[in-house]
Amino acid sequence: MHADEAEIDAALVRSLIAAQFPRWAALPVERVASGGTVNAVFRLGDELSVRMPLTAAGAKDVDLEFSHLPRLAAGLPVPVPEPVAVGEPGAGYPWQWSVCRWLPGTILPPDAGVAAPGPLAGQLAGFVNAMRAADPAGGPPSYRSETLADRDAETRAALAQLKPGDGVDVPAVTAAWETALRAPAYAGAPVWLHADLSPGNVLLTDDGRLGGVIDFGCMGLGEPAVDLIAAWNLFTGPAREAFRAAVAGGDDDAAWARGRGWALSISLIQLPYYRHTNPVMVASSKFVIDEVLADG
Q1: Bigger pLDDT: 158 vs 2
Q2: Is the pLDDT of residue 102 over 90?
Q3: pLDDT confidence band for 1 (50 / 70 / 90)
Q4: CB half-sphere exposure, 278, CA atoms < 13 A
Q5: Which of 109, 116, 129, 274 could form a disulfide with 281 if both were Cys (CB 3.0 to 4.6 A apart)?
Q6: How many other CB atoms sit within 10 Å of the CB of residue 254?
Q7: DSSP line for 196-239
Q8: DSSP-based three-state secondary structure for 148
């Protein structure tokens, strides 16, 4: 997926575990099928997971999560990853990596949002509200702490890379992006964000409830509208409206417009970048773009 991506397999993980954490050396290691773009994830036994950054940029997330996630976790309404250990470079692998507690659950398909206004919409809104309520003191800027205007050049460059086979109505999407840019800017204080509430990061229980949220590599302080991306990443129709009604400030039309713009910009940039390397991200991006247009 990336020009500077490391080659990572189960044999490498076993070697690193044996050398650095011999107490776990006898546990089986199995790669987790994932459309993730930052880490290769392996299950270690029944209770642990190993996250191996794919690039140097992703490796910075190890310290971020270990420094801030335990403090945030205490105020969140659902399970989140519990950091257990930090691994060091070795066996030819150049960066730090992490071991966390395994969280059970399933994820939504990348192109099949939840339509029924069941419990998930309200529960995910509750998670967003709890993140926003966390003490911002000492928090770093989120990976997505810029404004929509700051993303304009990159978003338009992505629009120019779209091809007929992508199935995107470029004039309609361009108009939607320009509408988002016209929304009044956020004038409040920055709040804690997850900043990547996509299908692969939201764990569901067997009965469709919210079982946990994972991958906090984008977390940090920013404007609240960023976490509204969940409305188009995960929901359609009535469920989206239920999420809006339950999330703090959901009745703020300007914030909703900016959230729609964030969802659109992220997906537009992802689509051409992963066109030939990550079908999960492509399917998710197309779904979000269609939902943004359907939502007006």
Answers
A1: 158
A2: yes
A3: confident
A4: 20
A5: 274
A6: 15
A7: ---GGGEEE-TTS-EEEE---TT-EEE-GGGGGGHHHHTB-HHH
A8: coil
Is the separation of the CB atoms in 270 and 281 below 8 Å?
Answer: yes
Sequence-distant contacts of 267-273: CB under 8 A, at least 24 apart: 267/292, 268/155, 268/158, 268/159, 268/162, 268/173, 268/177, 269/154, 269/155, 269/158, 271/158, 271/162, 271/166, 271/168, 272/158, 272/161, 272/162, 272/163, 272/166, 273/158
Q: Which amino acid does the sequence have at 179? A: T
Residue 261 CB-half CA count within 13 A? 30
Q: Are strands 48-53 and 202-204 parallel, antiparallel or unpaired?
A: unpaired
Look up residue 85 and give its two tokens: 């250990």
Exposure b/e, 264-296, CB count within 10 A at least 16 = b: bbbbbbbbbbbbeebebbbbbbbbbbbbbbebe
Strands 48-53 and 39-44: antiparallel
Mean per-residue pLDDT, 141-147: 97
What's the rounded mean pLDDT across residues 277-283? Answer: 96
CA proximity to 267, closest of 284, 285, 243: 285
SS3 52: strand
